[in-house]
Design a protein that fits this description.
alpha/beta, Rossmann fold, five-stranded parallel β-sheet, three-stranded mixed β-sheet, 7 helices, 10 strands, NAD(P)-bd_dom_sf, NAD(P)-binding domain-containing protein
């Protein structure tokens, strides 16, 4: 059953959570902060995750699944620090858990283009990424949710590796967007400075099937 503000549930205040989770066996947490900054992220996940875990424990939930991001364990700043906090809260809870870390999605590239647009173009770091479609993320999360709790982490990424600045240039071109891409090692991502390989998944990651060209064709 979906749980959201539309359904009268607020994870920040906790309003409606106990009623919404009553009788639930599995909770899948795909909530997100209202802004991908360190301050907004830390405030959101500190409060929302604590409320969700408390309500899940009261309901006798047997499996708590949280969606996180690849790089949360390495990039200790910005939004990634907030996701690391979420992972820590879930991991220390007595509820059996699984954490799914997703690589950067194709859909998130649009947000990056807006956030880092300057007079001379879109500033993008030359970090290596294995981007994937949100449909592939959803499939991985669903698979984990119906299985035995991992008591750990599964990373999921796309089938192709790109440099983030090159990928942004391909996206803008596909959209008919005339803006230039400026390679900028200081551009960062979601308020965090990213090293060349900091956004790549660990060995053994689950690999989605949707390539960038397939995603473009499906839009």
């Amino acid at each position: 059953m979906p749980v959201s503000r539309h359904h009268g549930v607020d994870v920040i205040t906790g309003s409606g959570l106990d009623e919404a989770l009553r009788g639930a066996e599995v909770v899948v947490d795909v909530t997100d902060a209202p802004a991908r900054t360190e301050e907004a992220g830390l405030h959101f996940f500190r409060t929302a995750t604590a409320n969700l875990l408390a309500a899940a424990a009261s309901a006798g939930v047997e499996h708590h699944v949280a969606l996180s991001v690849v790089g949360a364990q390495r990039l200790r700043s910005g939004y990634f620090l907030a996701k690391e906090l979420q992972e820590y809260q879930v991991g220390k809870s007595p509820i059996p858990h699984s954490i799914v870390r997703a690589a950067l999605s194709f859909e998130a590239l649009q947000a990056i283009a807006v956030a880092d647009t300057r007079p001379d173009g879109v500033h993008v770091a030359p970090a290596l990424v294995r981007p994937l479609a949100t449909d592939d993320v959803a499939a991985a999360v669903a698979h984990v949710a119906v299985g035995v709790p991992l008591l750990g982490t599964l990373e999921v990424a796309g089938p192709e590796e790109y440099r983030l600045d090159d990928l942004m240039a391909k996206l803008l071109a596909a959209n008919g967007d005339a803006r230039s891409v400026v390679t900028d090692v200081r551009a960062g991502l979601f308020a965090a400075q990213v090293g060349k390989g900091a956004l790549l998944p660990e060995p053994g990651a689950h690999i989605g099937h949707t390539t960038f060209s397939m995603w473009l064709a499906q839009r």
